[in-house]
């Protein structure tokens, strides 16, 4: 099963609250953006191999070649493809660019606001802010809008070609929105859990308070429960042979082991106060909620990781 289907099936099968699902990473939409980005680059004749070559070259040439170009005074943070190329008699002669790429870029440059070798900035009359808010992805037929070049003042044969990647903008907007929603949800759940733990602490302090009459306190029963809980190392491992943070699957396994051992323990260590019964239910519910939060967080981290890896 592909991860996208597995991701959606897990969100549905694990019965997460609806507002959690609404905050989850939009995996399908992000994958759609990536395909649009690939198509956008393909229409420029820039396949993965060409881009890898350009990236490898930029590591060694970025500092020396950036000198001599006009200062970039455009406002706002917008993803764009930027690379340097050699010109001769009005034609691109860069050896690392394929014939298709050269032909495509020359054609796009001639359709731009100025001929290749001039200096131009993307037009502000394209209602870019409105386009960025549209739900639909920007058609790849519009990739030429805003393409511009600039000539190096120190080396007339060296030009900088910049192509705004509109679907990249949409991709980062969706990803940023999803991560922001997850962060907000995390803060809300953290506050709720802290409140629940605080209430539980007050209840346990009351029912486990030492008393002269042992029939009126559950001190020893709760001491045994917490000792067992620490011994199970549910969320964290204290052994050198295991990772400190447990995976959701390991946490679930340890929590089930704790519940089984707790049933045996309660047969000989019964509560004397009815408030303790309710407090134990609350204690178990808090652990189940923590596990569900951990699973949801892990699932979204996997989704984000696969998206960024595939991108």
How do you describe this structure in short?
By secondary structure, the chain is α+β, with helices and mostly antiparallel strands. The protein is built from ten helices and four strands. The chain has a four-stranded antiparallel β-sheet, sandwiched between helices.
Description:
The radius of gyration is 30 Å and the shape is rod-shaped. The chain has helices at 3-13, 18-23, 27-42, 48-66, 99-111, 128-133, 166-207, 219-232, 248-268, 274-310, and strands at residues 80-88, 91-92, 148-151, 158-164. It has 311 residues and is of the alpha+beta class. The longest helix has 42 residues, at 166-207. It starts with a helix and ends with a helix.
What's the structural blueprint in terms of helices and strands?
Elements: H1 3-13, H2 18-23, H3 27-42, H4 48-66, E1 80-88, E2 91-92, H5 99-111, H6 128-133, E3 148-151, E4 158-164, H7 166-207, H8 219-232, H9 248-268, H10 274-310
Antiparallel strand pairs: 1-2, 1-4, 3-4
Features:
311 residues; 4-stranded antiparallel β-sheet; 10 helices; 4 strands; 7% strand; rod-shaped
Q: Report the end-to-end length measured between terminal Cα atoms.
A: 20 Å
Oligomer kind: single chain
Biggest pleated-sheet summary:
4 strands, antiparallel
The chain-level mean pLDDT equals 75
- Rg (CA only): 30 Å
């Amino acid at each position: 099963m592909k991860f996208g289907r597995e991701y959606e099936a897990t969100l549905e099968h694990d019965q997460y609250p609806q507002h959690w699902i609404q905050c989850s990473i939009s995996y399908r939409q992000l994958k759609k953006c990536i395909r649009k980005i690939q198509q956008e680059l393909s229409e420029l004749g820039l396949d993965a191999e060409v881009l890898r070559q350009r990236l490898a070259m930029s590591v060694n040439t970025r500092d020396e070649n950036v000198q001599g170009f006009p200062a970039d005074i455009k406002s706002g943070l917008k993803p764009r493809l930027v690379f340097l190329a050699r010109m001769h008699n009005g034609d691109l002669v860069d050896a690392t660019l394929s014939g298709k790429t050269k032909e495509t870029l020359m054609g796009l440059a001639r359709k731009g606001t100025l001929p290749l070798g001039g200096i131009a900035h993307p037009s502000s009359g394209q209602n870019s802010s409105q386009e960025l808010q549209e739900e639909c992805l920007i058609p790849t037929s519009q990739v030429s809008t805003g393409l511009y070049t600039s000539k190096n003042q120190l080396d007339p044969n060296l030009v900088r070609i910049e192509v705004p990647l509109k679907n990249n903008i949409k991709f980062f907007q969706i990803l940023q929105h999803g991560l922001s929603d997850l962060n907000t949800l995390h803060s809300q759940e953290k506050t709720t859990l802290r409140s629940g733990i605080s209430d539980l602490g007050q209840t346990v302090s009351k029912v486990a308070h030492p008393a002269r009459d042992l029939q009126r306190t559950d001190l020893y029963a709760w001491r045994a429960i917490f000792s067992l809980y620490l011994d199970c190392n549910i969320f964290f491992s204290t052994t050198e042979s295991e990772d400190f943070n447990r995976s959701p699957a390991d946490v679930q396994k340890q929590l089930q082991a704790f519940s089984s051992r707790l049933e045996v323990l309660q047969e000989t260590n019964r509560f004397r106060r009815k408030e303790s019964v309710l407090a134990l239910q609350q204690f178990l519910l808090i652990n189940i909620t923590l596990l569900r939060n951990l699973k949801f967080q892990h699932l979204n981290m996997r989704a984000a990781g696969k998206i960024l890896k595939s991108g």
